[in-house]
Amino acid sequence: MDDLQRLILQGENDTVDFKQRVTQPEKIARTLVSFANTRGGTVLVGVKDNGTICGIDPEEEKHLLQLAAEFYCDPPVALHYEELETDGEVVLKVIIPESTHKPHFAKVKEDDWRGYVRVKDTSVQTSKMVNKVLQAEEPEFEQLPLDRFELAILDYLHKKPSITLKQFSRLVNISERRAYRILVKLVIHGYLRLHDKEKEDYYTLS
Known about the structure:
By secondary structure, the chain is an alpha+beta fold. 36% of the residues lie in helices and 25% in strands.
């Protein structure tokens, strides 16, 4: 079994991520930053979420990855590439070493830079508190006293498989901005997992 098959069989985890293609530099920047801020990792471009190899044009993908690493990551993130061929399809293996210049931030929109760490198979937005300790250690989860909004989302997710920001905002009748802050807090402290996919982000119980 070759290295590519071995990585795919492991599935997405705290050091491996699959991407069918890189279409949005600002989205892939979150993944790059999360690996650099944590223990490093590998992105396999040309592999679907379910592990199916679909292949890509490596030069096109490298162009977007370099754009993401240099202009959407601060400080820029170092990337190393390997082109792997299997059954006539090319997969780009992108290696992101653990950084010695933590914390890195990803550009979400103009003048809005946010930190991310890798938790299981997800890039999780960090709090200011976590950004301060990134240089020394990975964040530790802690149990929190929960308010009624936080309890409401946990109760909802015991009955339903997932929830989006919009659904949560409507569920408890608060602004999306406030709902987002609550969701991030619950992800950081290990109650929820953020699934940061190409389409709409969603959340599940950890």
